[in-house]
Design a protein that fits this description.
- By secondary structure, this protein is mostly beta strands.
- It is built from 11 helices and 32 strands.
- The strands form 4 sheets. It has a 21-stranded mixed beta sheet that branches. The protein has a 4-stranded antiparallel beta sheet with strand order 3-4-5-6, with helices on one face. It has a 4-stranded antiparallel beta sheet with strand order 7-8-9-10, covered by helices on one side.
- The two termini are 14 Å apart.
- Bound molecules: copper (II) ion.
């Protein structure tokens, strides 16, 4: 194991677990940003229940209420620590935001939020069985040959917001079911199509049933166990990562040290992985890069006009919760066998703690790539170093889809954020079995026939990341290096080149970036600090995958997802501006969130600023997506730009090569 730099106040008593070094401080000290423990969740629930209005409430979320940024930055291990919980309570009468001082077991505040609709809770999903008591819905199922209602799975599809008068004041989902008679691993392969119940989750009533006619249920096997797949190819000889001397990272509670990098990582029930206090140990100085980063929202609009489908425009993070749906990672498949696994504790909607084992994994990987090299033909010299990176990973299973969320750190000071999409396409039952069928043209207007009786509906996936970059401290500016082609004077043999024009944005609107506006490099700059030759220090944000939302801006889903109007936004830091879709995404109306905040056009130069980066994809479906999709990755990268005086990976010794 390589020598690890010791961080002041950490690391006392070192022992090895799972092949990596875990340090147990003598006085186990909670970090200011640690997720709530099981005990803290219990105290939060108990304390919140002391308010009579909360009697009988469901708790859609109970999470850490972070100390202020100033407090976190000033805090040193060993100092007393205020621990607060943010409790969301939902009753038939209202929604309450409750702040609890967990240490003092004291109610700080209870605020009623009129009209707020929290994310869908597990109790609401489990309670959907009342739909099957509806005679019209039962009759619709029977018409489709379903007589055993124990052999179906009914899903709550969030119904969005469309200013439909009958929906006003209600907590609306559309319920559609799947035939599970043949199902082992795949719950979504046999849709019972064109039969939907519109449901009010609050009153637990069926508002209406829509039956647009019987569609045959798929007959083929869409499971994906080895047995279901059929003949298997010959097994491969093992290809495994091996770390015979142990790993090079250190995990201390929720703090991670690897190479020059130090950061804190927790899983939040709503947004999933939250990476905080990302810093680079530069000689004796711990230099700040990213105060905090997380996925603030996802948006997955389906492109199908039919009744059961037009409303499928999911805000997965705000409507369902990305972190609470973390699925345990399997060693040797989801993460290398050498990985270190960490559990996550969440609150269920009764306010009880629930532990998800192996929710996060951390591992190093050497992919056989050089981090840098040069071979010189003239004097026959060669120097190169291998790239080893550190990966922090979680996976969320949100309905039919599985998403992998990676934060990847390397020795060149770069951070890559990758989102992997796998799992099962949303499938629509159709009469067509082959493209030659008379019904095929109509059936495939909105998607691809991927198997007999199944169309995978076209859709998009968007991911909005909130990145509170603090490049050598909070006072930063947003700079766009615009590549500008110029024509050279007539006496020049060369006709054209480009020059680079830096443009520092003074306000929010000036900083909004649209990829189609032309090529530019985007950087967060600290204008108050320079590197050795006098250039201001900065980090570049390199976005590999933008996708443009093609919806009419006046269409309700687009109004609710206005954070997709620009590829990159910059706002001044505000602790209450946390999610691009606003605090409450379920049935939101576009009256909260990034686009609303940015309307103020606040000053952002030499301020504590936050970047909001959108990445996305159009998913034109295909046969290979079945029965489970091969993982497709989308990403962006944070990359130092004049932050250092030279290549920060230049000091890697040859003995690190793999
Ligand atoms: Cu997709």
């Amino acid at each position: 194991m390589a020598t690890l730099r010791r961080i002041t106040g950490w690391a006392v008593g070192v022992f090895a677990v799972w092949g990596c070094m875990i340090t147990a401080p003598a006085n186990a000290q909670t970090h200011a940003l640690d997720a709530l423990t099981a005990d803290e969740i219990r105290v939060a629930t108990e304390t919140a229940k002391a308010d009579s209005r909360v009697a009988g409430a469901l708790f859609p979320s109970i999470t850490l209420n972070e100390p202020s940024k100033a407090e976190v930055l000033a805090w040193q291990p060993g100092q007393p620590l205020a621990r607060q919980a943010r409790v969301l309570a939902m009753t038939a009468n209202g929604v309450f935001e409750i702040l609890v001082d967990v240490g003092a077991r004291r109610l700080i505040s209870v605020t009623e939020r009129a009209g707020a609709e929290p994310s869908i809770t597990m109790s609401e999903i489990e309670g959907l069985k009342f739909v099957l008591a509806n005679a019209e819905f039962r009759s619709g199922l029977q018409k489709r040959g379903i007589t055993d209602f124990g052999k179906i799975f009914c899903a709550p599809f969030s119904a969005g917001y469309y200013a439909i008068p009958e929906h006003e004041g209600k907590r609306v989902v559309k319920v559609g079911c799947f035939d599970t008679r043949r199902s082992t691993t795949n719950l979504f392969g046999w849709p019972i199509e064109r039969l939907y119940a519109l449901v009010d989750l609050r009153q637990r009533t069926v508002l209406s049933v829509r039956d647009d006619g019987v569609v045959p249920i798929a007959q083929e096997d869409h499971n994906y166990t080895e047995k279901a797949v059929g003949e298997l190819r010959d097994p491969k000889k093992p290809t495994a990562l091996s770390q015979p001397l142990g790993a090079n990272f250190r995990v201390d509670g929720q703090q991670v040290t690897w190479g020059r990098w130090r950061f804190h990582a927790r899983i939040d029930a709503r947004v999933g992985t939250v990476v905080s206090l990302v810093r680079w140990q530069d000689q004796s100085e711990l230099r700040s890069v990213l105060y905090q980063g997380y996925l603030s929202e996802m948006f997955v609009p389906y492109m199908d006009a039919d009744y059961g489908w037009y409303s499928r425009t999911y805000f997965d993070i705000g409507e369902y919760g990305g972190g609470a749906l973390a699925s345990p990672l399997k060693a040797g498949v989801d993460c290398p066998a050498t990985a270190h696994f960490m559990p996550a504790v969440f609150a269920d909607d009764k306010g009880e703690p629930v532990t998800t084992p192996d929710a996060l994994c951390i591992f190093e990987r050497a992919g056989g790539d050089p981090i840098w090299r040069h071979s010189e033909v003239i004097n026959q010299t060669y120097e190169g170093r291998s790239n080893v990176e550190l990966v922090l990973r979680m996976a969320a299973s949100i309905g039919n889809y599985d998403y992998l969320f990676d934060w990847i750190f390397n020795d060149a000071g770069e951070i890559e954020v990758r989102v992997g999409a796998t799992g099962i396409d949303a499938l629509k039952g159709v009469p067509s079995r082959r493209m030659g069928d008379a019904t095929a043209a109509a059936d495939t207007r909105y998607g691809t026939l991927v198997a007999p009786n199944l169309v995978a509906v076209n859709h998009d996936h968007y991911f909005n990341f909130r990145l509170d970059l603090d490049i050598d401290g909070p006072s930063n500016s947003f700079n766009r290096d615009v590549y500008k082609p110029i024509t050279l004077p007539a006496d020049s043999p060369r006709r054209s080149i480009y020059i680079v024009q830096p443009e520092i944005a003074s306000t929010e609107k000036a900083a909004q970036v649209d990829g189609h506006a032309g090529p530019a490099k985007l950087r967060v700059v600290n204008e108050g600090r320079t590197n050795q030759v006098g250039n201001p220090v900065s980090y570049e944000v390199m976005v590999a995958n933008h996708a443009q939302l093609l919806l009419d801006p006046q269409d309700w889903p687009a109004k609710r997802a206005r954070f997709l109007q620009h590829d990159v936004w910059v706002t001044p830091y505000s602790p209450v501006e946390r999610y691009a879709s606003g605090e409450y995404a379920f049935q939101s109306r576009g009256t909260d969130g990034l686009a609303v905040w940015a309307e103020r056009d606040r000053p952002i130069r030499n301020q504590d600023i936050v970047l909001w980066v959108n990445i996305g994809m159009h998913h034109l479906t295909r046969a290979e997506d079945l029965p489970v999709m091969p993982t497709i990755w989308h990403s962006f990268k944070l990359r130092p730009h004049n932050f250092f005086d030279r290549n920060p990976a230049i000091d890697l010794p040859k003995s690190s090569d793999r």
